[in-house]
Write a structure and sequence with these properties.
Largest interface: A-B, 38 and 38 residues
Strand content of chain A: 15-25%
Structural class of chain A: alpha/beta
Helix content of chain A: 25-40%
CATH architecture of the largest domain in chain A: Alpha-Beta Barrel
CATH superfamily of the largest domain in chain A: Metal-dependent hydrolases
Oligomer: homodimer
Radius of gyration of chain A: 21 Å
CATH class of the largest domain in chain A: Alpha Beta
CATH topology of the largest domain in chain A: TIM Barrel
Chain lengths: 422, 422
């Protein structure tokens, strides 16, 4: 394919990691005005001042040109925590919650996660894949170029594998890259309520080996939380996964401090996620172990808790922050990383530079992809967003709108779809 | 022009006023499943069950057809409070605020509203009109079909009239309908700081008569707030406007209770806006006088006040609620009514039905347009949105994305722009 030369960029804004092509950062952003970017074979080969470009790489008569219209270019968003392959919908529960019912009351009445489990078990793999693709369309329109997606609404060997195959099938059809996580330990299924140890046996002895043998996932995840899985149970599941090559990550300390952050540190998890109720001891353990904190402010917002993770304290302690949508039907139905960034700035108290870093480079690192994506640097994959904005600050300043004017994936424009002659 | 028949609508959701074609409502929404809508000469002539349509209006071989794709149709949004005609940009102040400076500190250092006044005075009418048009593009994409726009960054006779002419010029070029408001009493300009009575004389004796003579505005507005204009000053300005045919509305009780709500009731204003600090007495006065409360949750969000107007209390007291963006460069830079609706549901505590009513019919009533727009009813103007959503509840449930798939204005599709052959 021909080279792609992106011209008329008002500024490039990219997180800067500590070394070449990798490592988490904490809000140090390089801003290059009046810039151009050259993409070749799906990679960035030049990103810098327009004036230097010609001297460096010549006139490039064979290159395709894309006019950024004076917009800002940032890395494609990386969304490292989603529950995409679900069936059914829960807007009626949502309306009940608005009318005053609590999440726990709704769950006790047979709603909540188990209603999604029922619908997902009834769905075919093809139906789930179509649902994932529709959600990926929204994600791409909002600038996400790589996302993680978890199982966890099947809660049986057949249905967890069905979810993971749906993720793979959707990824094969779509421009957005997907990384899959096995999360059979999302909840105890109803048929195992009185024998939870047997469900843990099923996960560790059947589901994990089958997923690993079929190479259906890269990670394993557990909902380590009071009333769901204990730290000891979570440890067992994550170690079983690790023995089969599934790297650990976990839902930790979302509602109460249950030692999830410390467990993440103990196991060397790639990420501990949620952390609304994380303790000071948990923060220190994560900092010491270099664990990334993946924060999900859309979930706090959607659940109307008015309580957000202590992001500033974690940054002060040296914990790298990533951001994700948590896209799911019960506690955060959004595919939009721009919305998550706005909530991170307005509610978590991140600076715009910190939020950009968290939504790109640090999110990539939490998926083990920090060497390939997450910043605008020569040698990285050309996953780029053109924002309809004169500079990076507009990413939060101009809020509530979708700032993404165009998406470049692997060096090709994929959104909006180019018109004939356009 | 040919009739337009909108088919394959999963549901129509429209506020229901107390009588035919008019009057505010409070969250009573009519939902019609499996519906069609017929538009003729820019008006709705049928909106109801698809099965009844053919019996009522026949086969319609000459009608243009639009497939809503199984989406939901609601009225076009009406945004009754914006400050669109400004020049300059204030993202640097925004970043300072994120770093800990207060709005008042920034204003004291020469930033804030007066920096926008300087830039707006320096801009030409054509530049301002171009800025308004660009903001109207965002509004239309987010589903706004009618908006109010205020002057108030000129603060001189020449510059206030320039702003109002820019509104008119932009409206002539754009699909979105604009209603103009004179708001010379937005702030005391620096050159009148030591003689504020003279500025009030200027407004009442020169600016108001000139605006009225040139028919440049329908409304007049005042920032009635401690440190800006007193209730007595506000009364003088609004009465001067009313004597020249400019109907009163006002910024009331945004930061502290300064009697703005009571003044709105006394003067029979079409709307009192902001009301974060409104008193119980003010609420009762508004309820007794039938004054619409226009709430601006984007402003609370953007200023990170974590304090929102007491919407539920006002609804209980019988005050009709409208919603608006307050789109402006200093305290709420968004054009998105979907974002405002999400904030209204999640932060003001409105039901989805109340938020829909507030963003359409009640907003139309606050502009004196309740007879013409704001609901999906035969006889009203065909200003309609097709949402990429199976039902109304998704308008808040599926948050952070732009749900507007298509906009119909005056019975014609205007967004997204139809492609050749599409």
């Amino acid at each position: 394919m021909p080279d792609l030369l992106i011209q008329n960029i008002s500024e490039i804004a990219s997180p800067e990691g500590p070394g070449p092509l990798g490592g988490t950062a904490q809000g140090r952003v390089r801003r290059i005005p009046d810039a151009e970017i050259l993409c070749r074979d799906g990679e960035i080969v030049y990103a810098g001042p327009a004036a230097e470009r010609r001297a460096r790489v010549g006139d490039l008569p064979g290159a395709e040109r894309f006019d950024a219209g004076g917009g800002t270019v940032i890395p494609g968003f990386v969304d490292p925590h989603t529950h995409l392959p679900w069936a059914g919908s829960r807007e009626l529960e949502f309306a009940q919650r608005l009318a005053g019912k609590t999440y726990m009351e709704i769950a006790a009445a047979g709603g909540g996660i188990l209603s999604t489990v029922r619908a997902t078990r009834e769905a075919t793999e093809e139906e789930l894949a179509a649902n994932v693709e529709r959600r990926l369309d929204w994600m791409l329109a909002c600038g996400t170029t790589t996302a993680e997606a978890k199982s966890g609404y099947g809660l049986s060997a057949a249905d967890e594998l069905k979810q993971l195959r749906a993720i793979r099938a959707a990824a094969n059809e779509h421009a957005v890259d997907l990384v899959a996580t096995l999360m059979a330990a999302h909840e105890i299924p109803p048929e195992y309520r009185d024998r939870r140890e047997r469900y843990l046996d099923l996960i560790c002895e059947e589901i994990v080996p089958a997923v690993a043998a079929q190479e259906l996932a890269s990670f394993s995840d557990v909902f380590c939380e009071e009333g769901v899985f204990t730290p000891a149970e979570s440890r067992r599941v994550l170690i079983a996964g690790r023995e089969h090559g599934l790297l650990p990550r976990l839902h930790a300390d979302e509602f109460v401090d249950s030692g999830g952050a410390e467990l993440a540190a103990e196991l060397g998890a790639l990420s501990a996620d949620h952390l609304i109720a994380v303790s000071e001891r948990g923060i220190e353990a994560m900092a010491a172990a270099g664990i990334i904190a993946t924060l999900l402010p859309g979930t706090s917002f959607f659940l109307m808790k008015h309580t957000y993770a202590p992001a500033r304290r974690m940054i002060e302690a040296g914990v790298p922050i990533a951001l994700a949508t948590d896209c799911n039907p019960g506690s955060s139905f959004t595919e939009s990383m721009p919305m998550v960034i706005v909530l991170a700035v307005f509610e978590l108290g991140l600076s715009i530079e910190e939020a950009l870093t968290a939504a790109t480079l640090n999110a990539a690192c939490s998926l083990g992809l920090g060497q390939r994506i997450g910043s605008v640097e020569s040698g990285k994959r050309a996953d780029l967003l053109v924002l309809d904005a004169p500079n990076l600050l507009h990413l939060a300043y101009h809020f509530g709108i979708n700032p993404v004017a165009a998406v470049i994936k692997n060096g090709r424009r994929v959104h909006p779809v180019a018109r004939a002659g356009g």
